[in-house]
Amino acid sequence: MEDFIATFGKIDVLINNAGGALKIPDGPKGEFKDMPMDYWDSQIALNLNAAAYLSRYAVVDMVDKKTEGRIVNISSVHGQVTWVHRRMLPYSAGKAGINMFTKALGVEVAKYGIRVNCVAPGLIYTKIPRRQTCQQR
User: Fold this and answer.
1) Counting Cβ atoms within 10 Å, is residue 49 exposed (0-12), middle (13-18) or buried (19+)?
2) Alpha-carbon separation of residue 49 from 73, 131, 137 (angstroms)
3) Count of domains observed in the chain
4) What angle do CA 98, 101, 102 make, to 5 degrees?
């Protein structure tokens, strides 16, 4: 972010698009009870904390430079519902956190002219869900 600001002078828009969902490792069914907690930590760090850290950096820059900026967080349909066959509890929790983080941050920074929104796409048919579909048949 520092290199970006040094090159472009300020942050106008931040899009938080980091994320990912891996099956819970360990255990025969990949259930929460078998999940290593460091896996939980890594998934929350990727799907929630990264957006919070970058948003804070952007908000500080926007407020300091009186920029009426925009922050867009990318969530997932799994922040509201989950795909039980995939067993991706930490991903769902992280994306649900992004949804509430977006609302709360949006309320807080509105007074500075900063708008915060969230996009929550549904299932995108890539190799991962294709593989799941084939395994369930």
Assistant:
1) middle
2) 12, 28, 36
3) 1
4) 85
Angstrom distance (rounded) from CA 116 to CA 101: 10
Half-sphere exposure of 24 (CA within 13 A, CB side): 24
Determine the 3-state secondary structure of 94 from DSSP. Answer: helix
User: What pLDDT score does 84 carry?
Assistant: 61
Kindly report the CATH number assigned to the domain that includes residue 59.
3.40.50.720
Asked if 77 and 92 count as a contact pair (C-beta separation under 8 A), the reply is: no
- The pTM of this model reads 0.84
Residue 103 belongs to what domain range? 2-136
Tens-digit pLDDT profile for residues 6-41: 999 999 999 999 888 776 776 666 678 888 899 899
Cβ(91)–Cβ(20) below 8 Å: yes
The answer to whether residue 53 is catalytic is no
State the catalytic residue, choosing from 39, 53, 57, 91: 91
pLDDT attached to residue 31: 77
Question: With a cut of 50, which residues of the chain have pLDDT below it?
Answer: 136-137
